[in-house]
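Readers of this paper often ask what the protein records in our data store actually look like. Such a record has a labelled line for the sequence and another for the backbone structure tokens. Nothing more is needed to write down the fold, since each code stands for a local backbone conformation. The record that follows is passed on verbatim for readers who wish to inspect the format.
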Amino acid sequence: MTTLALNAANRSYTFLATFIDALDKAVAMAKASHHNRPSAEDMRKVRAIAETI
């Protein structure tokens, strides 16, 4: 039973860490571009962040 609980906790932690990392990258992408008129440089920054996902 303890092994099952530890396995479930480990999977939950892994999922949560992945989810938080994805949210962090989404925030970084949002901050990398000017929302009114994104430039080519803004798009390059966003693509570079997206490639790390």
Remarks:
- The mean pLDDT is 86.
